[in-house]
Amino acid sequence: MRVDLDQAEAFSAAVRTTALPQLADLFGETPAEFLRQLGNRDPALAQGMAKLPAIQRLAEKVVTNLQRRRTQRNNDAALHRRGLAPLRPFYQATQPPSTPMI
Length: 102
Known about the structure:
Helix 2 crosses helix 3. The protein has 102 residues and is mainly alpha-helical. The chain has one domain (2-93). It is rod-shaped and about 70 Å long. 79% of the residues lie in helices and 0% in strands.
């Protein structure tokens, strides 16, 4: 999941920093003017572009939480395999507090 998220973020950055300025230049506009015109022609696309930073922040939180939960689950499974499940409360007390899910 992390690799997919990193690739999506790289693509998004390339669109914002390279593709949009080049497209704007082709039309003889600034990137801001191009985005405004794009919004007039295709409002859904412009809205998606505007929401992209918030979507990326949410996706980052989700992936981070899933990775944290996987680590906790793997640690818990390791305790069971070693027959140390009764020690779980002591083990959990030594772990940093988890952040709440989104």
